[in-house]
Structures are given as structure tokens and as C-alpha cells.
Amino acid sequence: MTSPEEAETEETVTCLHMTFYHPCQKEKLMFRCLNFCRQEQVRADELAKFGRDSNICRYNLMDSRVSRVQFSLQFYRKLNSSELCFEIKNMSKKTKLIVDHTELGYLNKIDLPQKCIICFGDYQILAEIEEGESMDCFHTFLHLAEVPVLQERCLPSLQPVPESGISYSSFPSQGKSPTESDENES
């Protein structure tokens, strides 16, 4: 039996949480081939492909309007760094992929932000990266959303309203930086 001091340190694994939404999911069941609420391990050297071709894609979307391969995710480590990241690449010739506010055409790729929304057609996917240390693999954890993830993420935050009744946050700042004032000044 080994003592706790001699035991190997357990390595944490990066986990990509993805929450899927489509307005017609209840009628068309396009996510029926995805394993929700179950963590899946993916080898670091594998491309995680999403699309309708089950022979090519690990994550199948059952919809004829989805490309055979819609997009792919590549797990990698940044040069001269221990930071582990994902790169997302649009594999569809017909449909643009939008990652937050960045539009990707065919074969365009960018680093996947820590938390972002991926959109194509009527599909919305909230992606959140839970950082880990392992360079051998990563995990995916898929969730199904009942409401649009854009609606969930873009709800206006409740800002306190000053006594004057005018909320300055509702007016565009037009590039001006905030200024400090003393309440005794006129």
C-alpha cells in the first residue's frame, strides 16, 4: 500500500460542455444520436467532427439541412505554453458558422473562446471550456436546452436606477470614458 505522499497526482482533464438548441427539436429530434448528460472521452489527436454523416462525424445531427461535416474541433496546446485550447473550423461549403460575433466561411478557423455561442442555420450551441491539465485526451459533456441559448445568455442585466430616474447605461457612451465628479460640485 502506498502512502498519500507517494501516490501519483491525478491529472485533471479538460472538459468541453456544449448545450444544444434548435427550435424544432421536439418535432424533428435532430439531436437523437447525441449522448446527453454523459461525459465522453476523446483522444487529443482526434478531430471532434459535428455533422450528419455518421461515418465521418463523432457527433451526428439528424437533419438533411446540416452538412455532412458541419464543423470540427481540434484540441491543442499553444506553442511555448502549457495552455490547452480548442480550435473550431467551419467544414461546410454552404453554411457560415458564427462563433460569438465572428463569421467563419468554409475552412476558416479560430480559437474557441472560453465561453461562446456557436450558430449555424437555426442551431445554437453554448460552448464552455472547463480547463484541465491532461494532454492525452479531453472530455465532452453535452446538454440539451429547452430555450434558445441566445435568449438565455443575452438577457439584459438588471442595472440599478439612480434616484434621478435616468439610467445612463441605456444611452450609448459614444466612446467617452467615465468621469468622476464630486456630489458637492455644481
Automatic annotation (TrEMBL):
Keywords: Cytoplasm, Immunity, Innate immunity. It is found in: Cytoplasm. Residues 49-121 form the FHA domain. InterPro entries: FHA_dom (IPR000253), SMAD_FHA_dom_sf (IPR008984), TIFA (IPR033621). One of its GO terms (cellular component) is cytoplasm. The keyword Cytoplasm applies. Residues 166-178 have a biased composition (Polar residues). Residues 163-186 are annotated as: Disordered. Its main location: cytoplasm. One of its GO terms (biological process) is positive regulation of canonical NF-kappaB signal transduction. Belongs to the TIFA family. This is TRAF-interacting protein with FHA domain-containing protein A. It comes from Cuculus canorus.
